[in-house]
Write a sequence for this structure.
């Protein structure tokens, strides 16, 4: 009759000991997880940033055939390499007109020209291009955009008028023709084609990357300022 009571009294300390051991183990496990959580979080964040850096490298290769220097939290993960000197982002067809009038001793000669040119705006990639991937933003350092190409499409001679003794020379015509590409360049600057190219590059990169961080272009040189064209 005493055997069941003895067995019951003996099981309570054992059960209590098991409960204490289980609770202690759980507390230790939670403590260890909390202690290692910052390191695990940082490690995962760095991996994500490095993956983003590789995506940016691929985007530059696709858009510009350029592999910029990639840094993640101030640590270089990819060095710069380039296979092209210039990157054209925008192309515009521009038309310019030029008129030359010269009078001497009451005799005047006149040249009137019209030219159509293909003007390209982009970036000189021979300068340093670098990408710094940070947890809160992506900084892309590169030179300001500029006019990287001007191609003649066609030129029309609208008027050639000689004076009685003031004749048009080959040098006159050659000089006037040489002024047309420069006029196209200056017209492109007036309509801010390089600035538009900078915005277009950011648009293409933002569309290609789709990162949660803000993407910011930082220009490392001064923007070129063109003086207004003066007709003779």
């Amino acid at each position: 009759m005493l055997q069941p009571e003895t067995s019951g009294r003996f099981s309570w300390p054992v059960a209590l000991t098991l409960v204490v051991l289980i609770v202690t183990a759980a507390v230790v496990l939670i403590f260890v997880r909390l202690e290692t959580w910052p390191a695990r979080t940082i490690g995962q964040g760095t991996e994500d940033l490095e993956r983003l850096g590789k995506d940016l490298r691929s985007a530059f290769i696709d858009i510009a055939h350029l592999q910029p220097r990639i840094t993640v939290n101030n640590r270089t993960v990819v060095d710069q390499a380039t296979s092209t000197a210039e990157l054209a982002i925008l192309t515009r067809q521009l038309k310019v007109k030029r008129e030359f009038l010269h009078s001497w001793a009451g005799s005047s000669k006149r040249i009137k020209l019209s030219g159509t040119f293909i003007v390209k705006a982009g970036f000189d990639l021979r300068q340093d291009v670098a990408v710094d991937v940070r947890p809160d933003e992506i900084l892309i350092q590169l030179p300001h955009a500029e006019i990287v190409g001007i191609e003649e499409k066609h030129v029309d001679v609208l008027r050639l008028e000689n004076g009685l003794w003031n004749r048009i020379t080959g040098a006159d015509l050659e000089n006037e023709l040489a002024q047309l590409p420069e006029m196209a360049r200056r017209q492109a600057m007036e309509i801010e084609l390089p600035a538009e190219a900078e915005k277009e590059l950011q648009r293409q990169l933002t569309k290609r990357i789709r990162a949660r961080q803000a993407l910011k272009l930082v220009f490392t040189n001064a923007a070129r300022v063109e003086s207004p064209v003066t007709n003779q």
Summary: The beta strands are 66-67, 69-72, 75-78, 81-82, 86-104, 107-124, 130-133, 137-142, 146-161, 214-219. Residues 36-44, 227-232 have pLDDT under 50 and may be disordered. The longest strand covers residues 86-104. Residues 53-219 form one domain.
